[in-house]
Amino acid sequence: MSTYAKKQGFGATLWDFMTTVDHKKIAILYLISGGLFFILGGLEAVFIRIQLAIPDNNFMSAGIFNEMITMHGTTMIFLAAMPILLGIMNAVMPLQIGARDVAFPFLNSLGFWLFFFGGVVLNLSWFLGGAPDAGWTSYASLAIHSEGHGVDFYVLGLQISGFGTLIAGINFLVTIINMRTPGMTYMRMPMFTWTTFVVSALILFAFPPLTVGLFLLLFDRMFGANFFDVAAGGNTIIWEHLFWIFGHPEVYILILPAFGIFSEIFSTFSRKRLFGYSSMVFATVLIGFLGFMVWAHHMFTVGLGPIANAIFAIATMAIAVPTGIKIFNWIFTMWGGSVTFTVPMLYAVSFIPSFTMGGVTGIMLGAAPADYQYHDSYFVVAHFHYVIVGGVVLGILAGVTYYWPKMFGTMLNETLGKFTFWLFLIGFHLTFFVQHFLGLMGMPRRVFTYLPGQGWETSNLISSIGAIFMSVGIIILLINIVITSVKNVRVGNDPWGDGRTLEWAIPSPPPFYNFKQLPLVRGLDAYWIEKMEGKKEMTPAEPLDDIHMPNGSIIPICITIGLFIAAFGALYNMDNKTWSVPVIIIGLLITFGSMLVRSLKDDHGFHIHKEELMDDKDKEVKA
Amino acid sequence: MKTRLRKWRLISLFAIMTLILAGCGEANLSALRPAGEVAQKQFNLMVLSTLIMVLVIIVVVVLFVIAIVRFRRKAGDESIPKQVEGSHKLEVIWTTIPILLLIILAIPVVTYTFEFADTSAMEVKDKDGKTKDAVVINVRANLYWWEFEYPDYGIFTSQDLVVPTDEKVYFNLKASDVKHSFWVPAAGGKMDTNVDGVNQMYLVFDSNKANEAENLFYGKCAELCGPSHALMDFKVVTKSKDDFNSWVKSMQTVAKEPAVAEGELAKQGQEIFNQSCIGCHAVSTSNNGAGMGPNLANFGERERIAGFLPHDEENLKNWIKNPDDYKPGNTMSGKYGDLTDEQIDALAEYLLNLKVEDK
């Protein structure tokens, strides 16, 4: 063990993270880069609220404002929320099913780097002639009309990072199907693993339509195709369908992991098993399934006709039923329990009313004839921020606080955590509650300014003040992270004291091979069962033996950098630059060359020998 | 806990105060002050869904508050609560009741969806090919301005939509460059103007409500369409059926004999207009010229300059001088070279006197 854990210099650590295929380190990479993008997206949000704080404001120009809203939405969804959730999944899911890593560690690394460089491509647009400005939905007619390279950055950035997400989804699916420890049947899987499973399936089916849509747009913009050019027989509504066939499941890709995190937190801090586990699993699967049946509710005003609108309205309302089941099950998990209000639990508790409000406005939006009024107004803005901030972001904050000790071996400060919690929660409601009424009072969304005298001044000001609260909350969280990391007080296996699932049965952070011996699972909440029988650790399901581990590899970064280079070639192709085609070719050569090396070079990984593991155990006993 | 409760109370108090302060918005703009049949029905549906949803929220919050207050862990309590698996009965209850509530909501939703989509009256034509008993208006949305054509009367106007009260007004909606969305919040929900095909809808403007709003409603573009999306406003002028008919008459008169400028300055202005502006802007109500810019035949009677600036000479001059200062990304900037201040004065004089009604 000692050979692996020795202190390293900065360069060595950097190299280690660049080549790592360890799911826990990749999780940290996801968390850090997702966190950075979250701050970036947050800054953009603050700028938006400054611009809208007073009528007729001149804080930024109309063009810049459209770039801000586009980048805020795109960044928050694709580069902040999803990666952070993928990070938590990476950190926790293999531990929860008792696996030593994901099924394809190499692909896991590749998925991360694709996401990361995709995000870099997108954000480089700020420095290379302007960010995309057609909204995060990038509706085709506007996207084609948009000048400069902004939308090209959007297309290529999302294409690259989308491949990464798709790879991650497939990887998780295979992992959960194949790598569960003995005794871990499907109906004994922790709720978070279940949601990871369903979300991975959603990613598998939802991302290809986006990829197709982005390719069509890419060909239209960069290579002179006419898929969306009406004059040439194209059709722009196709883009809307493709986008929302991806876009609606995407909402569930974000919210389901948050549901999973909250399920773990509710039962841990109520000291009670999840109420109605099987109906929760059923509801999760049903939400995932129905999530694909409702995309056209984003298009009620497009003119699809009354039959389509009515069908999609009913389907949308149907989703409320499984979601309601979940809400009540969470409440009844606490019911009769022994509830303690740690910071993660505070987030979980506040999530219930916040998310319920977002959910019910969702049903209101699903009522098609009324949606003609809500659509594209601030009501929609209020709704989806209630769902995404009140659901996903609270879930992320809860999950990060809850799993911080498992990932880093030290606890975030609870007092500072409570400051963050209250500021963020108050700020969130302050910012978005009034926006419902702004929408109903006729304020369209995505407006860079508004004239005085339309009755919107007070609410907009309140909304902007709320944004300050949220920002201060996040700043305190960052301070908390710094303080915690500097103090670095180490914690044991089960720092919250009431851990129920396998991840709490092993050290924090876990050794790189996770489980010395794969644990035997005897029921739902496997670790809790052992604890209740007075045991300190899991019963092993196998004798102590050599562990086979994969080698790290730099190839994932090489593959990604090739695509990164090719993207810039494609981007400037429409300017008739002579160097653009050679650059595309060089980039793709790097990518496919790296793949070839990977295919031809045998890499059998290495074994940790039984003796080393035994040493380790002996040391623990002595200490 | 007490302090927490107090905080919550503060927040809700704050929220309610906000509501009261903000009221329900302006009569000419707010969906909460419906000014016609369509908006009224949509408003009723909003109220129904809100009531059902408030009911749901109350149930959730009550259960939730009981759960977090009653089952708090006492200090030093190390007991292990009973590990309940679930309850079949409860699961059935909270599956069935939401389904029932949703059915209650679904009935008016489906009914109204079909009702609002019923534009069959537009198809009933008389022997001249004109719509028999309905006012039909073709709306064409362009980068930051709106064109309104009355095909049955053979007239065009732009920016100010003129409609009769107390009857269904039907719209054909289309965009000519990028996607926009046609929205008059006080009169009803929006409909997208696509580049791909024509959408149809109808609105009704109630005469009493129109009086409250001083016969002027605000229209908005609701779909992001570029930098000046926020400024792509239009106005709806409501008139009684008689006034509407006489407005149509005077518009038709101008269609036959286009206005001739009166006065020295205005004549000068007309000359400049004919050199620099006429390529894009029509001044006869019978056509829309090349369709590149708003029809200006009744410009002097418009409510706003460029759709959102107060209608006065100074704003008009500033606008002509540099449209990009006011509507970034518009398609007018740079199309007519630099005009001197004198030329702009003349042009403004000419344009502000383009009127159809008070002649």
**Count of structural domains of chain A:** 1
Number of helices of chain B: 9
Briefly note the CATH topology name of the domain at 255-352 in chain B.
Answer: Immunoglobulin-like
Sequence stretches where pLDDT stays below 50 over 5 or more residues of chain B = none
CATH class of chain A: Mainly Alpha
Please state the structural category of chain A. Answer: mainly alpha
Radius of gyration of chain B: 27 Å
Q: How is the largest sheet of chain A built, in terms of strand order?
A: 1-2
Report what the structure shows.
Chain B: It catalyses: 4 Fe(II)-[cytochrome c] + O2 + 8 H(+)(in) = 4 Fe(III)-[cytochrome c] + 2 H2O + 4 H(+)(out). Chain B: It is a multi-pass membrane protein. Chain B: It comes from Peribacillus huizhouensis. The complex is a heterodimer of chains A (623) and B (359). The longest helix of chain A has 35 residues, at 62-96. In chain A, α8 (191-222) packs antiparallel against α9 (237-270) and α10 (277-290) runs antiparallel to α11 (306-334). Mean pLDDT of chain A is 93; it is low at 1-5. By secondary structure, chain A is an all-alpha fold. Chain A has 20 helices and 2 strands. Chain A is globular. Chain B is elongated. Chain B has a 5-stranded mixed β-sheet with strand order 3-2-1-5-8. Among the domains of chain B are: 2-69 and 94-116, no CATH class; 255-352, Immunoglobulin-like (Sandwich), CATH 2.60.40. Chain B is α+β, with helices and mostly antiparallel strands. Chain B has 9 helices and 12 strands. The N and C termini of chain B lie far apart (74 Å). In chain B, α2 packs antiparallel against α3, α6 packs across α9 (341-352) and α7 packs across α9 (341-352). Classes of the chains: A mainly alpha (623), B alpha+beta (359). At the A-B interface, α4, α6, α10, α11 and α12 of A face α1, α2, α3, β7 and β9 of B.
